Amino acid sequence: MTVTRPTIFVIDNDASVRERLARLFASIRFTAEVFSSAEAFLKRKPYDGVGCIILDTDLPGLSGLDLQEELNKSRYPMPVIFITGQGTIRTCAQAMKAGAFDFLPEPFDEDELVAAVKGAVEKDRAARTVRSAVRGIRGRMKRLTPKEYEVLRCMIGGMRNRPIAVKLGIVEKTVKIHRSRVFTKLDAGSLAELARMAEMAGVRPAR
Questions:
Q1: I need a surface site. Which of 15, 96, 108, 157 has the fewest CB within 10 A?
Q2: What domains, with CATH codes, occur in the chain?
C-alpha cells in the first residue's frame, strides 16, 4: 500500500524563508506548499491529508495569529508551528493558548524545526486515525433503532435488564433482544468496548 507523503504548508512573506524551508522538507521526503500570505493559503481548497502548517506571526493582511483564529473557527484540524523573528512572550503565550503545536523564534536550528514538524505530523496522523474511527462508530450507530439507542445509553450507564425494562416501559425479554442487536450492529465484543465506542461517539449514558 502506498503511503502519501505528509504535506507541510509554509506561510511566510519572506521568499527566501519559503524557499529554504521547501528545500529542507524535500530533503526529508515531505511535500511542501508555500504561501506568501494568510489570504493566499485560505484560497486553497481544504486539504484532507496528513501534515502541518508552518506559520509566520508577522504577515501582511491577516497576521499569523489571525489565521490561527480563522482555522480554529473552521475546525481545521492540522497542527500549527509558529516561526517568528519578532515574537514576544505575549505572542507566544497567545499562540500556545490557542492550540499551537510549537513556537520557534528565529534564527531557529533546522534540526529543531524538523523535530517539531515530525512531532506535529505524528500528532496529526494519530488524530486522523481517531477521527476515522469515530466516523466509523457513528456510522454504525445510525443502524440502531431509537429503542436500541436508548437501551445502549442505559447499558453504558450501568443499568441491568430489569431497570432498563422499567425505565423504557418494555418487558425484560425485549431488552435482551435489543442488547443483542446493539452488540451486533456496533460490532462490539464486550460492554467495556461498547462503553469506549459510545464515549468516542459522544453518546451520554442514561441516568
A1: 15
A2: 7-136 (3.40.50.2300), 143-201 (1.10.10.10)
Q: Which residues contact 4 (CB under 8 A, 6 or more apart)?
A: 49, 50
Closest CA relative to residue 98, chosen from 65, 125, 74? 65
75 phi-psi bin (left φ>0, alpha ψ -120 to 50, beta other): left
Contact indicator for 33, 39 with CB cutoff of 8 Å: no
Of the candidates 112, 110, 82, 107, the residue with the CA atom closest to the CA atom of residue 97: 82
* pLDDT tens per residue across span 63-108: 999 999 998 888 777 899 999 877 677 888 888 898 899 999 888 8
65, containing H or E segment: helix 64-73
**What is residue 157's DSSP assignment?**
T
The rounded distance, in Å, linking the Cα atoms of 94 and 31 is 29
Q: How far is CA 179 from CA 151, 190, 197, in A?
A: 7, 11, 15
d(CA 55, CA 180): 51
